[in-house]
Amino acid sequence: MEAIALLGRLLGLSFVSGINLYATIAVVGLAVKFKAVSNVPPELYVLANDGVIGLALVLYFLEFVADKIPGLDTMWDLLHTFIRPFGGALLAFLSVANGSPVAEVVAFMLGMFIAGLAHATKAGTRMVLQISPEPVSNVVASVGEDVIAVSMAYIAMKHPFLSFFIVLAIGVVLWFVLPVLFNAVSMMLRGLWWRISGRYSSLEDFSDLPEKWKTVWSKVRESEERVKWCGPAFVRSVPSTRRFSSGWLVITEAGVYFCLRRMGRKRVIFRRGTGFVWICRPGRLFYLCRIYFDTGEEWEFFINAASEKFFRAKLFELEKKA
Q1: Global pTM?
Q2: Which residues of the chain have pLDDT under 70?
Q3: What are the residue ranges of helices labelled H in 96-248?
Q4: Of 238, 283, 244, residue with least CA distance to 135
Q5: How far apart are CA 125 and CA 108, in angstroms?
Q6: Number of other CB atoms surrounding residue 142 within 10 Å
Q7: Where are the chain's structural domains?
């Protein structure tokens, strides 16, 4: 039980340090100073110093403001890429500083890993919110993170046993969430690069499928089927397909295809028939395109802004023929 409580404090403080380091230090310092918690490791009493608490509150106020301004929050997260993991490692070290040298080294490394993982999840999620076509408020996301940081820091100090199982549950969730988040961040970075480099913006026609996809597509298409439009796309919602997966969307007179890699193998998801309608909504880096099939099924993709006008024109031609 004592070992689990020790791990609960160590993991809890490390995790919330990756979300908001300054709020964590302030909460721990205030809790120790006003004796709101018991069984505190002696080394953590340094955080109860008035100067430490005051500086942590000032820095937390700066983060509170910066974290709610689109664009500035991303820059703030980039600035703290090394600060938060190191802060989490230091808090983990202080939690076991009266133990053996081996325990101290292990705690430091574990704290850095947990805090780094939490920071990467927070920063990646906020970057994805920046490009989403939906008007998701940075303020709502930031306030939610503040609430989690403050409450979890207090729980880690007051109820370390509970903290252990909370962090364990969060770890299980992240096991499934992180691959999707990785795809989302990759999509955003590629979108930024396309915009900066002007890639695809000089093309006058989007009907030439890249060679790497032609072989696998030829296995499922009709013999006389020709490409009307194709372009790079990322999945927002396609049945049995991971969100933000990258590939090539192909529109023909006979159907809709999406070429992608799954488990290292090239695959094609397709629906034949001309009975579909579409809607495109502009976003900051991508257009969100919805394709509604007459079967009631719906596909959603993020497509490059440079190719959207050709996408719209070609689908309009198909609608007139239908």
Answers
A1: 0.79
A2: 131-137, 198-207, 274-275, 306-322
A3: 101-131, 138-158, 160-197, 211-218
A4: 283
A5: 26
A6: 21
A7: 2-195, 211-321
Contact 70, 138 (CB under 8 A): yes
Q: What is the pLDDT of residues 110-151, one digit of tens each?
A: 999 999 999 999 998 888 777 665 545 678 888 999 999 999
In the chain, the amino acid numbered 111 is G
Amino acid at 27: V
CA 133 to CA 112: how far, in whole Å? Answer: 34
Q: Using one digit for the tens of pLDDT, what is the confidence trace for 18-27?
A: 999 999 999 9
- CA dist 91 and 160 (Å) reads 14
- To the nearest whole number, what is the mean pLDDT of the chain? 85
- Residue 277 to residue 266: CA distance in whole angstroms: 27
Sheet holding 286-293, edge to edge: 265-272, 255-262, 246-252, 227-237, 298-304, 286-293, 276-282
| Cβ-proximal residues to 238 (8 Å cutoff; 6+ apart), any chain | 258, 269, 299, 300, 301
Domain 211-321 class, CATH top level: mainly beta
Dihedral of the alpha carbons of 108, 171, 191, 316, in degrees to the nearest 10 = 180
What is residue 92's predicted lDDT score, i.e. its pLDDT? 94
Estimate the share of the chain in helix, then strand, then coil, as percent rounded to the nearest 5: 60, 15, 25
E strand or H helix that includes residue 248: strand 246-252
